[in-house]
């Protein structure tokens, strides 16, 4: 019974955080681009009881792959996959989600398999920092003011429930890998699955024009700059808690605090940075 209760608490906290952070992110495209890789499932993965450091080492790599996939999807959704112009929007969403997940799985599995031969967290952070700086300097675009969605408009409908269902599906996949696989490598792989972000992008691809969709990409490479230190620090704190035999409640509370700090950083730092970048012009 305690195991079931812990599972339900993790699921409830994850869904609540996903709904809240997703709604706040939808109100600002700059924030939304970073939140595509917000470490929700990463935090939950640390609570599985499997080697936190091993989980984190897979997450670093897969998060970067997620960002690259998002950028390609934003700019090439019209032919990835190629579909006739008159195809029903719902069919387009399903087809795009399916193709993008297949691409993600292929790339993420290769990275997870060969992670020991690839750079460490510090090197990956440095590489992404340079790449993000170059991208922001060269590809930043002004965005037109838009009317932010209300909470009800975003979540109290079939699309909103579909996004929540995608998050729950990703959560259950992570739980199944942790329960039956007992491998830090593949728990990290499952926890980096960006299913909610892929689903949201597919919906936006039939609702908005290319410029609006690509505006999310201005900040998407900033995501790993949050995810890498988040997982590096969290894995070490979780290990320390286990050495101290602090128990599951303390670990859950720690993850929630880490989520809150990560979200606060995004919402506090990114808007003034975006205003500064806009003021400098293109």
How would you describe this structure to a colleague?
This protein is an all-alpha fold. It has one domain. It contains 13 helices and no strands. Helix 1 packs antiparallel against helix 2, helix 4 runs antiparallel to helix 12 and helix 8 runs antiparallel to helix 9.
How many domain units?
A: 1
Round the Cα radius of gyration to an integer and report it: 18 Å
Hey, roughly how much beta strand do the residues contain?
A: under 5%
Mean pLDDT: 87
Please provide the ordered H/E string of secondary-structure elements: HHHHHHHHHHHHH
Helix content: over 70%
Question: Count the strands?
Answer: 0
Pairing-aware structural class of the strands and helices?
A: mainly alpha
Point out poorly predicted stretches: none
Described by the principal axes of the CA atoms, the overall outline is globular
Continuous helix count: 13
Biggest sheet descriptor: none
Q: How widely separated are the two ends?
A: 57 Å
């Amino acid at each position: 019974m305690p195991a079931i209760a812990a599972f339900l608490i993790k699921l409830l906290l994850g869904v609540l955080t996903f709904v809240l952070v997703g709604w706040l992110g939808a109100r600002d495209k700059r924030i939304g681009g970073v939140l595509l890789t917000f470490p929700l499932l990463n935090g939950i993965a640390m609570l599985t009881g499997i080697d936190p450091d091993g989980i984190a080492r897979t997450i670093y790599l897969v998060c970067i792959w997620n960002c690259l996939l998002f950028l390609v999807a934003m700019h090439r959704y019209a032919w990835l996959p190629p579909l006739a112009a008159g195809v029903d929007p719902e069919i387009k969403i399903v087809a795009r989600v399916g193709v993008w997940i297949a691409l993600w799985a292929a790339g993420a599995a290769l990275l997870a398999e060969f992670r020991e031969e690839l750079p460490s967290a510090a090197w990956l952070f440095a590489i992404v920092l340079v790449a993000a700086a170059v991208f922001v300097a060269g590809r930043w675009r002004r965005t037109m003011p838009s009317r932010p969605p209300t909470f009800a408009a975003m979540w109290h409908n079939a699309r909103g429930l579909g996004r929540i269902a995608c998050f729950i599906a990703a959560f259950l996949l992570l739980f199944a890998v942790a329960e039956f696989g007992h491998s830090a490598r593949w728990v990290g792989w499952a926890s980096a699955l960006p299913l909610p972000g892929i689903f949201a992008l597919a919906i936006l691809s039939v609702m908005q024009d290319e410029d609006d969709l690509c505006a999310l990409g201005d900040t998407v490479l900033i995501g790993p700059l949050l995810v890498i230190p988040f997982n590096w620090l969290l894995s070490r704190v979780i290990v320390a808690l286990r050495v101290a035999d602090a128990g599951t409640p303390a670990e859950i509370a720690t993850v929630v605090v880490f989520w809150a700090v990560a979200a606060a950083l995004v919402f506090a730092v990114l808007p003034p940075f975006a205003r500064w970048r806009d003021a400098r012009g293109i």
